[in-house]
Design a protein that fits this description.
The complex is a heterodimer of chains A (202) and B (443). Chain A is of the alpha+beta class. Chain A has 5 helices and 4 strands, in the order ααβαβαβαβ. In chain B, strands 1, 2, 3, 4, 5 and 6 form a 6-stranded mixed sheet that branches. A 4-stranded antiparallel sheet of chain B has the order 9-8-7-30, with no helix packed on it. Chain B has a 4-stranded antiparallel sheet with strand order 10-11-12-13, with no helix packed on it. In chain B, helix 2 crosses helix 5. In chain B, strand 4 and strand 5 form a beta hairpin. Chain B is mostly beta strands and 443 residues long. Chain B has 2 domains: 141 residues, 3-Layer(aba) Sandwich (Rossmann fold), CATH 3.40.50.10070; 258 residues, 6 Propeller (Neuraminidase), CATH 2.120.10. Classes of the chains: A alpha+beta (202), B mainly beta (443).
């Protein structure tokens, strides 16, 4: 019983304090309004006024919310655009091609490798895996070796362009992971490549 | 030996020599089938239905079964023309199966050079099998054997006698106790399989769901080395066959390809690019120690030892195109072997001769060729489709290889002269690098 009484006292003190605190803020407004419009608002804002204020407030809130949503969408779109642009850039920087049974870098290959080097320099957190591939003519074992040679060719060139060996890995897949399987020069030339795969450096 | 006998020894030997020349040579020394003859004709042999010796009921079907099974077993060797039983002039099983019962003219009359008769006795689950091989031209017994065991061992008994026939007629027991392993590709991954030398009983050895290639059977028959990407990079593994346990023996982050084993199964030739370029090393299996043999910026790959271990054949593009080269096993004295054609790879050294089988691009497609290591003109063994990756049998009488014809890939075996091509596995998308086991002494 005693404890109940104490709790009740505390509760009442809380309510009183809360009323005073909350009561503190609103009266200010009412007081200001009263001072500027002494004659007409002797008893406070009319129902019409209140409704108008509420409507305006709701309109403002809605506008703010819609703006927030638009901002969010804009941010997301910007992210997507950035990712797409990077993907497109990486796609341009994803493959170089070779002649049959050769691992020398063509002029075109060097141009792409120059851009790869630029990209890697601009993104120091990225590392690159160079996958060497071959078309399926020729022997599996020889093609595994040739694929390694092709990957190494590209890696050595990037090294001369200033990319640290530690950021590069060169692996051969020989003729084991073809992009296409038709027995045509169009398909074979697609498979004679070094493919670049970018990842965050660990 | 006494003084006197030593003086007369030479005269005695001379007399013996003359006598030997004069008499007919004993049956087991006669060369019945000359394997190495390039146009070897098939040897005509007649196999009678086997006699049901104790007339045991419910075993009648074994009479033709033994004859048919022995016939099929011999036919796979490619050396025999199994004569059709419908052409037989006599029912030899009825007449009797021992030497004194054989009517030799009835057999020479249909063109046979050899005859096999047999008899079986089944008692419960026990089986006794007797088999005899006759030279019908000379009218005599060459070899006879009796086997006892269980009824379910009957196939094994047939194979054992087939081995006896081959020893008697070709000098060697044949390859019934050997197997052929290879890599098979399906839906983007590849695994190692093996089959019996006649293509029966396929076994899938790996299930890594990765790229797994280049199996090489060790000369002691107990291990297969191979390449696999299962740990993320092309590493070298050995599978111990009795328990199918796998251990990784070389990982360098770069390409490692297993190649031929040393004769004592303790070392192997490997291609590794660990030092920058693809070079050939000798790898000691027990401690992983590597000895570098080639040292140049070109591609050096697919090495294979000569049978005496003193030389190595390998593929190099140091001359501009992939060609086959020879070198001493120390790495010294490198010299080029192939000069015909612009792409010659996968050399396989004959187990007993200085001859190499390889695949060469000729007429726009790969074919299997052989060449003597002293040099000379290559001999082309295959002509249709695309034929690659030759592997010799342990006796050098056959070559296993991969054939692609009509869009289908198959593992095949042919006689070393290119005849008698037969399929030992098909159905997967693609096949690579068959390897032939040594004799596993299963019979």
């Amino acid at each position: 019983m005693k404890r109940c009484g104490v709790l009740l006292a505390i509760l009442m003190a809380w309510i009183l304090a809360f009323t005073i605190i909350s009561g503190c803020s609103t009266p200010k407004k009412a007081t200001t309004e009263e001072m500027t419009k002494p004659a007409t608002q002797a008893t406070g804002p009319s129902e019409e006024e209140l409704a108008k204020q509420k409507a305006e407030k709701e309109a403002r809130d809605r506008a703010l919310r819609e703006q927030a949503i638009r901002d969010q969408e804009a941010r997301e779109q910007a992210e997507r655009d950035k990712a797409a642009a990077e993907a497109a850039r990486l796609k341009d920087l994803s493959k170089i091609y070779f002649e049959f049974d050769r691992f020398e870098l063509s002029t075109e290959a060097r141009e792409i490798l120059n851009k790869v080097a630029e990209f890697l320099k601009a993104n120091p957190k990225k590392s690159i895996t160079i996958e060497g591939n071959c078309d399926d003519r020729g022997t599996n074992e020889y093609n595994l070796a040739l694929g390694q040679h092709r990957a190494d060719s590209a890696a050595r060139y990037l090294q001369t362009m200033g990319i640290d060996k530690k950021r590069m890995k060169a692996i051969s897949y020989g003729e084991e992971r073809p992009i296409c399987t038709e027995a045509t020069e169009a398909c074979w030339s697609k498979n004679r490549n070094a493919t670049f795969v970018y990842s965050e450096k660990k | 030996m006494t003084e006197r006998s030593r003086k007369s020894m030479p005269y005695f030997l001379a007399l013996l020599f003359v006598l030997l020349l004069a008499t007919a040579p004993p049956g087991h020394a006669k060369v019945y089938i000359n394997i190495d003859s390039p146009s070897a004709q098939k040897f005509p042999i007649a196999i009678t239905t086997f006699k049901n010796m104790n007339g045991a009921s419910a075993q009648e079907s074994l009479s033709p079964w033994f004859a048919d099974t022995l016939g099929k077993t011999l036919e796979v060797t490619g050396f025999f023309n199994i004569l059709d039983r419908k052409a037989f002039l006599v029912d030899q099983a009825k007449l009797g199966i021992a030497t004194e019962n054989i009517q030799f003219p009835a057999w020479t009359g249909i063109g046979a050079e050899s005859l096999v008769t047999g008899g079986f006795t089944v008692s419960g689950r026990d089986l006794t099998l007797e088999c005899r091989l006759f030279d019908v031209i000379q009218g005599k017994l060459i070899v006879g054997k009796r086997y006892t065991g269980k009824l379910e061992e009957r196939k094994e008994m047939v194979v054992r006698f087939a081995q006896e026939i081959l020893i008697a007629l070709t000098g060697e027991k044949g390859l019934f106790d050997t197997k052929i392993a290879f890599a098979g590709k399906k839906a983007g991954s590849s695994e190692i399989y093996y089959v019996n030398y006649d293509g029966t009983e396929p076994v899938k050895l790996t299930n890594f769901r990765s790229i797994t290639l280049s199996p090489k059977w060790s000369p002691d028959g107990k291990q297969i080395s191979f390449l696999s990407y299962k740990d993320g990079a092309p590493d070298l593994f050995i599978m111990e066959l009795s328990r199918h346990t796998v251990r990784r023996i070389l990982t360098t982050g770069r390409l490692n390809l297993p190649a031929s084993w040393s004769a004592d199964s303790k070392r192997m030739l490997v291609t590794s690019s660990k030092d920058g370029s693809e070079d050939i090393y000798i790898l000691s299996v027990a401690d992983g120690k590597m000895t570098k043999l080639t040292n140049d910026p070109s591609i050096d790959v697919s090495p294979t030892w000569s049978p005496d271990g003193n030389q190595i054949a390998f593929v190099s593009d140091r001359g501009g195109t992939p060609q086959i080269y020879l070198m001493d096993s120390s790495g010294a004295n490198v010299r080029r072997l192939t000069f015909e054609g612009g792409y010659n790879t996968t050399p396989a050294w004959h187990p007993r001769a200085n001859r190499i089988a390889y695949e060469g691009m000729t007429g726009g497609a790969f074919q299997i060729l052989t060449m003597e290591t002293e040099g000379g003109m290559p001999v082309q063994l295959t002509t249709s489709g695309r034929n690659e990756n030759p592997a010799w049998s342990p006796d050098g009488r056959y070559i296993a290889f991969v054939s692609r014809l009509g869009g289908k890939s198959r593992v095949c075996v042919m006689n070393s002269n290119g005849t008698n091509v037969r399929v030992i596995h098909e159905g997967l998308d693609n096949y690579v690098s068959p390897t032939w086991s040594p004799h596993l002494n299963l019979y």
